[in-house]
Structures are given as C-alpha cells and as structure tokens.
Write a structure and sequence with these properties.
single chain; about 750 residues; six-stranded antiparallel beta sheet; 3 helices; about 5% helix
Length: about 750
C-alpha cells in the first residue's frame, strides 16, 4: 500500500509540472499573439517626414483623397494617403521609407491604382527584394493586402513605393501600412493548387469582367511556359476554358496564382476532365466567316499558301474571350471556305507575347532551316518590341523558334512591330515592311536572319491620328503596268471612328516606295469593322490573285461585343484589283470566287420593284445569304434601302449623290448598348456620281459586307439583331422614277 501511495504522489507531481508548463506555454503564445499592431505609416501626419521622395508623382505631401483629374478615391483610412497621380498618369517617382525592424508575423496595407508591374510597393531587406506587389485590379478603391514576414522577424527592412509607369492607370495608391500578427487580407499571393493528372484537361471557370490574375503552370515542380493572365470567375461562371494536360498523364501539375481571393468561386471550381464541352453554335456565331473555336481573336497573321493548303494564323487568346496572352492560333483550308482548326502554333516565351507578323515558304533554303521550310516572322512583345522568327519543316504543324531571336532588335521605338516579308525576285532578296511608330520602315535580307534597313515611308502623307500597324507591300497589275500597293492599318483614326486600313499606290524599286499623287488617305474599307488585313504569300503564279483578309471588329468596342465564349470573326477573303472609280485609281476588293460566284448560286430572281418589301426565308437567313441588285437613279439625288426584321431592327443604306456619299446607319440594328460608341449614327464612304450602282450585300448572323460596283467602295459593319434580318426594304417614297433591276437572293454554299 505504501509503494502505491508513493507512485500516486509522484504521478500527481508530474502532472502538476506538466500542467504548469502547458499553461505557461499558452500564456506565452497568447501574449505573443496579443502583441498590438504596429503602425509603420498611415500618412496622418500630412507629411512624408519618414520617407525619402524622388520624382514628382507623389507630390510634396500625402494626398487627401483624389487629385486633379482623378476619379474618386475611396477605401483609404483616415484623412491622408500616398497617391502618385500628381500631374496625372505620366508622372513618375518613388517613396522610400526609413529602415524599421520586423517585429510581427505579417505586414498589412491598403493598395489601389494600376496593375502594371511598374507601379508597386516593395519590401527590401538589404539589397534583396522580398515582396513586390501591385494593385490586383485597376481601381481607385483601395484593397487590403498582406505579406507573410515570419521568416524575417527581427531583421531590418525598408519599404519602397514606386510609380515608374506612364499612360493609362500609371499610378499607385497606398495607405495604412502596419505590422500585425494577423493576416488580414482575403487576397492570397502565390496561391498553389496541385492535381494528379489522369485526364485530358484542366477546366478553368471564366468571368469576362473579373480582374486578370497571372497563372503559372508547373509540371512536377518545373515551370512550363510563361505566366498567363486569366480572368477566373469571381461571382458567376460565364464559360469554361481548357488547359490541355493529356501529355502530362501520371504527373503532378500545379497552377500558381499570383493573386487569389478567398471566396472567389473560380479557385474552388477548377476541375480535371476528359471532355471540354462548349456551345459552338451560339447566337452570333457566323455561318460562313472564320471564327476561333473559343477564346479571343484579332489580327490575321502568317497567311501563306503551301502544299495545297491556305494557312491562317491569327492573334489568339486561348485563355479568355477578351484580348490578352497573345499566341498565334492556326487553321488551314483547301478552299478558303471550310477551315480546320489546328493546335496553337506559337506561344509566348521569355521574349514576350507573340504579336502579329507573316510567313513565307523558303523554297531555296536561304535561311538554312531546310528546303521549303515555312518561316514565320512575328513581333516578340516584351519590355521592348523586337522581331523574331520560327520555322516549320512539317507543313506548319509545329514550329521551332530560332535560338538567336530576336533577328531585329528594338532601336528604341515604342511601336516597332508587325513584320510582313516577301521575296523580291529582281534582286533575289527578302523584303520586310515593318510598322515603326508613324512610319513604315523597309528592310532587306539574303538569309532571313540578318536584316539591313533600306528606307522609311510615311512622313507627311496619309492619316496619322493613330499608331501605324500591320503593313503589307505587294504588286498589282493595271492595264499591263505593275503598280505597288502599301497597306497601313491605323488605330484610332479611321474615317468613321476607331480602326481602319489605309493604302497607298505607287512604285517600289527594291529600296524605296514612292507614292503616286492621289487624294490620301484612301481606305480599303470605309466600314467600321475591317482592320489589320493583309494578303496571302506564295499564291501560285498560275492562280495570280492577290487575296486579302481582315479582322472583322473594332478596337473601340471589340472586347464588349455580345458573344459568349469567343470574340471576333474574320472578313470574307477578298480578291484585290486596281480599278478606276471615274476620278482616280482605287484598290477594289470583292469576295473570292470560292465563296461562291453568282452563277453557282441557287437564286430567287425578282426583276421588278413592285413592292417596297421582299421577304427572306428561314432557309436563307439561318445559313447566310447574298442579295444583289442594280439601282439606276435617273437623276435622283438619293436612294435608301434596308435589311430589317419584324422587331423593327434594321441596318439602313443610303446613296446620296448630291453629297457624293454612301451612308450606313446601324443605330437601330439590334443590340447596341454593350458599348457607348458602337451605334454611330452615320458611317460614311465617298461615292463617285454614276448613272447606276450595282450592290452586293453579304449577310451573316452578325455581319454585313456591302460591295458597290464590284468593290470599288466597300463597307463592312458588324450587327447584332435579336432576330435575323428577314426583309429587304426599299424606300419608294417620291422615288417613282427609280429603277431597281436584277434583284437576286442567293443562298451561301456551305
């Protein structure tokens, strides 16, 4: 009994010792986490007394909210904050704090302004950058951010707030920087999700209006490619987009999100799947125009004919239906009508995104990559734009980037892009046309790798109210004479707002382009929705055509058009020719014969204008159609007609011979409120007075292309009627003498 008593007493003493240390540890832990927050800076002194100021962006003292010309700033604490909008977005400068000791586990702060990597707050320990954070979304509303600094406790640190960005959203807002033992933000930096891959896709839920976040792909811990900007769903899922991962079967694939927000549904609903289903035939998906399977598309690129195939590459975002993450998408066709989608051809890399360019067939192996290699030229859009090349030895199915890219470095020009290359046979050399800010610069090369500058064109001629882009230099024959045409796209500055493509007619001697004296600017298309168009290279001599394709959209509203999981289509491919419009030479364009010639169509012919309205049946408007007719004005000063539907939605066409103008009005065409500048009341083109006009209207589900007199005047305008246009209407009021002949309705051949 005595031994039992002794053991019991020892056990009780041991338990008392354990409980003492247990409660002591709780007390220590509690006191640690009850340490009060330490304010590093809240700017409430109204001065930068604890900071070193450089530049003009932050002014001489903290701001009291918004500055002159700035939207309302909200979400800051107290009366003052650091605001780099002094003298607007173009001002630059830095604030550098006095050194301080890290005494808590986290640093919390409020941040707003622009999302550029050149507007940031940075934590420095010695010379080492520990954190560098910019606003997660372009906003004048400050949001709470947190850094985990546990690993740096008791070390000396410095804060730097920097604005090195010019232009839109080139400013930063900072307030209430504190040390705390609480991670107070609901934003998570470098948040990682990892998946064991046994299926074909990772499916990402997308919301177009969500802020972009950078997402890096890792396979077995190693980075693959460069980070992509993705608009993960925050509140609702609009559509899904895939990351193909079939070739990573059995491996661990991780996604690192530079910033993620707790509670956003996008993070929680990413999933693996063997199928990627989406609605291809959505309301405004065209019937006979090229569009991407999904995602965003803009400029046509790299158009080249090779081994019986027309290659169409294009500016492509496979991770969202708004502009970003520029890749080269890819499709091929044997007839310019039916297109097969191929995998992405060229992806972004360490030199930057893959901007517009061209492709050639190197028949004589001048570059040394291989006889008949397809060589692509594109702009590497990194910190500075430069020209790079990639080559394909398997008919364009895969491309290898040249190891010594770029082949033309940037000569300190901000807009330096869009190389269009062709073989100049008279001097056995390659010629490149390159957009260089407000001019086009011509280069020459014998091997496609080393380039020498030849000449520059564009000063004091043509339209210059926007940046020059997407040049194309090529010959056309007119009455046995060779003339050279130079296409230059411009944005903004088109004849009817936003973007358009101007051209010059002249001569090229292998070094210099010399324009003929014509009433420039001249436009290949006066509608609002034909941009960045260029022509196919390597069309066989036996064919002899010069074939053009443009992007059927406008930067003024392109990101907002009411489609769902894709945005944008291309124009119809068009054959170019020189024509005399009665006053001077013009470049005329008309849909290529492969789309269908009049003799190929099954036509409904209505030769007499006996009524003001003609019906268009379901069989036509569901698949796209062409209407053609000839108008003889017999001295009348004007004539109007329209495409319309039963809801009163219509696109109106008006010939005004007195004003010498062909006018399109789409203000009542259907959906227009997605953008404030879509429903321009009048879209005008010059009209040479003639005794008759032949009109061809190509009508698809969301587009109208009007060609006057075989394409001497063209207007391409997208539209979004809530019901298809099922009537052709003529304004007969007071037009008894008008003669409308050969009214013909054609069904598109599919």
């Amino acid at each position: 009994g005595r031994m039992f008593l002794i053991k019991t007493i020892k056990l009780l003493l041991l338990m008392r010792k354990f409980l003492f240390y247990y409660f002591l540890s709780l007390l220590v832990l509690s006191s640690c986490h009850s340490e009060e927050d330490l304010m590093i800076e809240n700017f409430e002194s109204g001065s930068f007394e604890n900071w070193t100021t450089e530049g003009e962006a932050f002014g001489q003292a903290p701001a009291q909210g918004s500055l002159a010309g700035e939207q309302e700033v909200v979400g800051f604490a107290g009366k003052y904050l650091a605001n780099s909008f002094h003298n607007g977005d173009d001002s630059r400068g830095t604030l550098t704090s006095k050194p301080f000791r890290i005494e808590r586990d986290f640093i919390n702060f409020l941040i707003g302004g622009g999302t550029s990597s050149d507007t940031y707050i940075e934590l420095l320990i010695g010379e080492q950058s520990i954190y560098k954070t910019h606003s997660p979304v372009e906003s004048e509303t400050l949001q709470l951010m947190s850094w985990d600094v546990k690993a740096y406790r008791n070390q000396q640190a410095v804060l730097r707030i920097a604005d090195n960005q010019r232009g839109s959203w080139g400013h930063i807002l900072i307030d209430a920087i504190e040390q705390s033992n609480q991670y107070k933000s609901n934003l998570m930096e470098n948040y990682t999700l990892t998946y064991d891959i046994s299926q074909k896709y990772l499916l990402l839920p997308i919301e177009d209006n969500a802020p972009e976040t950078k997402v890096q792909l890792l396979v077995d811990g190693k980075q693959v490619g460069v980070p992509m900007d993705i608009r993960l769903a925050k509140t609702h899922i609009q559509y899904w987009l895939p990351i193909p991962v079939a070739h990573y079967q059995g491996k661990k694939v991780s996604l690192i999100f530079s910033q993620a927000k707790k509670g956003d549904i996008g993070i929680s609903q990413i999933k693996t799947s063997d199928v990627f289903d989406y609605t291809y035939n959505e309301t405004y998906r065209p019937s006979f125009h090229f569009s991407p399977e999904y995602g965003w598309m803009n400029d046509p690129n790299g158009m080249v004919y090779h081994n019986g195939e027309y290659h169409l590459f294009y500016q492509y975002n496979p991770f969202g239906a708004r502009w970003g993450n520029m890749h080269w998408g890819h499709a091929i066709s044997e007839d310019l009508v039916h297109w097969n989608h191929l995998p992405v051809a060229i992806s972004p890399d360490g030199l930057g995104a893959i901007f517009s360019g061209s492709a050639v067939v190197d028949k004589d192996n001048t570059a040394g990559f291989g006889k008949n290699a397809i060589i692509a030229f594109y702009t590497s859009a990194g910190e500075q734009q430069a020209q790079s090349i990639a080559y394909s030895l398997d008919n364009g199915r895969t491309f290898t980037k040249y190891t010594h890219n770029p082949v033309i470095a940037n000569p300190n020009i901000q807009d330096f892009r869009d190389p269009k290359v062709f073989w100049y046979a008279p001097e056995k050399k390659w010629i490149m046309s390159l957009a260089t800010s407000q001019t086009i610069t011509f280069y020459a090369s014998k091997n496609l790798k080393q380039w020498e500058k030849l000449s520059e064109f564009g000063e004091n001629i043509g339209a210059h109210t926007g940046v020059w882009e997407c040049p194309d230099l090529f010959p056309l024959s007119y009455k046995g004479e060779t003339k050279w045409i130079l296409f230059v796209s411009i944005n903004p500055g088109g004849p009817n707002g936003g973007n358009a493509t101007q051209y010059f007619i002249g001569n090229f001697d292998g070094t210099t382009f010399t324009p003929d004296p014509l009433p420039y600017p001249l436009w290949i298309d006066y509608g609002r929705d034909n941009y960045a168009g260029v022509t196919w290279n390597n069309i066989p001599e036996s064919d002899g055509r010069r074939i053009f394709l443009g992007w059927m959209n406008n930067w003024g509203y392109g990101n907002m058009v009411p489609t769902q999981n894709f945005r944008s289509a291309m124009t119809l491919p068009r054959e170019l020719r020189l024509a005399d419009n009665g006053e001077h030479l013009v470049v005329a364009s008309f849909p290529v014969k492969e789309i269908g010639e009049e003799k190929d169509y099954k036509a409904i012919i209505m030769n007499k204008l006996s009524s003001d309205t003609f019906p268009i049946s379901t069989d036509f408007y569901n698949n796209g159609y062409v209407i053609s007719f000839t108008v003889k004005l017999d001295g009348l000063k004007g004539f109007r007609f329209a495409l319309q539907n039963g809801k009163g939605e219509k696109i109106m066409y008006h010939f005004d011979t007195e004003e010498k103008t062909f006018i399109v009005d789409r203000s009542k065409s259907g959906l227009t409120d997605f953008s404030s500048n879509f429903a321009e009341p009048l879209i005008k083109a010059p009209l040479t007075p003639k005794d008759h006009y032949t009109i061809h209207l190509w009508v698809d589900k969301a587009s109208t292309e009007a060609f006057i007199n075989g394409g001497e005047v063209v207007q391409t305008n997208i539209v979004f009627p809530t019901e298809p246009y099922n009537q052709l209407w003529f304004d007969l009021r007071g037009n008894a003498t008008v003669s409308v002949e050969n009214i013909t309705l054609y069904k598109i051949k599919n």
